[in-house]
Amino acid sequence: KELISQYLVLSLAAMAGIKASVDPLDHGVDLTLKEVRKFFYKDKVRYMNSGKSIDIQLKCTTEKSVTQKNDAVSFDLEVKNYNDMVERQRSGELIPLCLIVVILPENPELWFESTFEKLILSAKRLWYMPDGNAPLSDNKQKIRIHLPTKQTVSPAFFATIFEHLLPNQLKI
């Protein structure tokens, strides 16, 4: 499940023109995304990192581990992961941390449909970041978070991630 979620997010980010890298030392970060800017130099297209980045924590689960009610999915997240996101939002000095939850069907046979022409992955994909005023949790193990279903992870999400989630980072 971990690799499925990783490759899914890497693929969606690539479709949006976002540079994504896997962090070999896991300090609560599975991927780092960097915004790439296109510019012209001597009539040639060039690409350069813009200076904006965001870290991603991935969680992959199945439908029985979440609860969907109305327009939100409830997910029990480890307190450590939640507090890491809150601390990064508060600090203003650390790279922000965004959670992406990938939810697969309960039956693994339904995860993929593969033909010569297509590879279809059945997975719900939602993102979550606490706001800057969110309190740290005193819970011992888990905290229930609510991910609005409108916060779907797609190429469109990645195309706007830096404008919507990183208002205070360097703007070029």
Description:
This protein has three helices and ten strands. It is of the alpha+beta class and 172 residues long. A five-stranded mixed beta sheet has the order 1-2-3-6-9. Strands 4-5-10 form a three-stranded antiparallel beta sheet. Strands 7-8 form a two-stranded antiparallel sheet. Strand 1 (19-22) and strand 2 form a beta hairpin. The radius of gyration is 17 Å and the shape is globular. The relative contact order is 0.21.
In summary, what is this structure?
By secondary structure, the protein is α+β, with helices and mostly antiparallel strands. It contains three helices and ten strands, in the order αβββββαβββββα.
- Alpha-carbon distance between the termini? 37 Å
Q: Oligomeric status of the shown chains?
A: single chain
Which structural class should the secondary elements be placed in?
alpha+beta
Number of helices: 3
Any chance you could write out the topology, listing elements then pairs?
Elements: H1 2-15, E1 19-22, E2 31-41, E3 44-62, E4 67-69, E5 72-78, H2 79-91, E6 97-104, E7 112-114, E8 119-121, E9 124-128, E10 142-148, H3 155-165
Parallel strand pairs: 3-6
Antiparallel strand pairs: 1-2, 2-3, 4-5, 5-10, 6-9, 7-8
